[in-house]
Amino acid sequence: MTKKELFNKLKNKGIFWSYSKKITYKEAGDGLFLEYLLKYGDFDDLILAFKLYSKETIKQVWEEKLKDDKRFIKLNLLLARLFFGMDVESSYFKEIKNARFEKFKMLAS
Question: Which own/partner contact pairs does 7-13 have at CB distance under 8 Å and 24+ positions apart?
Fold first, then answer.
């Protein structure tokens, strides 16, 4: 399976729910595609992504987009332990500053 085929498979599953139904792989780019795949793809999709992309590329997207998002602590723990070989506990993610949360706090004040 190619990256584009995996993208279309996930698009048909509806994981790009916040984007136009006509979004293409080229428009999404690797960053958005990998972010949504990590957040909403199933385990088999994750395995396939690691065959199609380098571990470093996926880890970079994870660190930029998901790692500090407290909504995904369990997912982050799974990714960190299983896919990135990190020896961490869930408390590791609870202590990371959440940029998204900080922006909301600033807007609310």
Answer: 7/33, 9/45, 10/36, 10/37, 10/40, 10/41, 10/45
Which helix (H) or strand (E) segment holds residue 3: the answer is helix 3-13
Summarize pLDDT for 45-94 with one digit per residue, the tens. 999 999 999 999 999 999 999 988 888 888 989 999 999 998 888 677 66
> 35 near 66, Cβ under 8 Å?
yes
Cβ–Cβ < 8 Å for 14, 35? no
Distance, CA of 32 to CA of 35 (rounded, Å): 5
Encode burial over 79-105: b for 16+ CB neighbours within 10 A, e otherwise.
bbeebeeeeeeeeebeeeebeeeeeee
